[in-house]
Amino acid sequence: MSTTHKRPEKIAIFREAEELLKGREFAFLVNFGGLTVTQISEVRAALAAKDARFVVIKNAILGKVAAENGWEDVSALLSGPTAVVVGGADVADVAKTVVDFVKKNDKASVKGGQMDKKLLSAEEVDKLSGLISLAAQQARLLGTLQAPASKLARVLQAKIDKENEGAAAPAAE
Predict the structure, then answer these.
(1) Cα(24)–Cα(16) distance, rounded to whole angstroms?
(2) Between vectors from CA 37 to CA 65 and to CA 17, what angle results, nearest 5°?
(3) Where are the alpha helices (DSSP H) in the chain?
(4) What's the rounded Cα separation, in Å, for the pair 42 and 58?
(5) Rounded distance between C-alpha atoms, residue 121 and residue 114, angstroms
């Protein structure tokens, strides 16, 4: 953004938006029109628990920052009140939180987003929300890796138990 002839507060707002979005792997755009302060606080708290943020940014600023960050053209998504959801280590978990919130609050809607600089539709964000979370994937992988070791331990224990039964029987006679 050219900083010549711009008011200092506009420059500061632009730079803050730039910092928020710089280097983000994903961002979701949400229409929050009609929501109460309490509802917005509720979604912010739910997202904060996932290390994500819900931030309102003017559409004009968001469009410029998105372009400077190499996103595909988001201008089609920038009408009406727009909030940006960014952050969190698990894109599927953050998407699920956003989509669940929107389903509970019919005045809000997912506009779309971006992931790895590719534009996402609202339907694609919804599909992301249906993916298994990173923590669940890790637990599933750990269980898969532990299964052979558990089976081996049970087989070895059964062999030890059988040998102990055989050794105990002659001693009893």
Answers:
(1) 14
(2) 15
(3) 8-21, 37-48, 59-68, 91-104, 122-129, 134-172
(4) 21
(5) 8
The answer to whether 112 and 82 are in contact (CB under 8 A) is no
Please give the backbone phi and psi of residue 29, each rounded to the nearest 5 degrees, phi first: -105, 130
Burial class (CB in 10 A: 0-12, 13-18, 19+), 45: exposed
Whole-model pTM? 0.72
Buried b (16+ CB within 10 A) or exposed e, 121-146: ebebbbebbeeebeeeeeeeeeeeee
| Per-residue model confidence as pLDDT tens digits over 83-126 | 999 987 789 999 999 999 999 998 899 999 999 888 999 999 99
CB atoms within 10 A of CB 51: 12
Measured at the CA of 70, the angle between CA 76 and CA 23, to 5 degrees, comes to 115
Distances (CA, A) of 45 to 35, 40, 98, 151: 15, 9, 12, 43
Q: Which two tokens stand for residue 57?
A: 């940014």
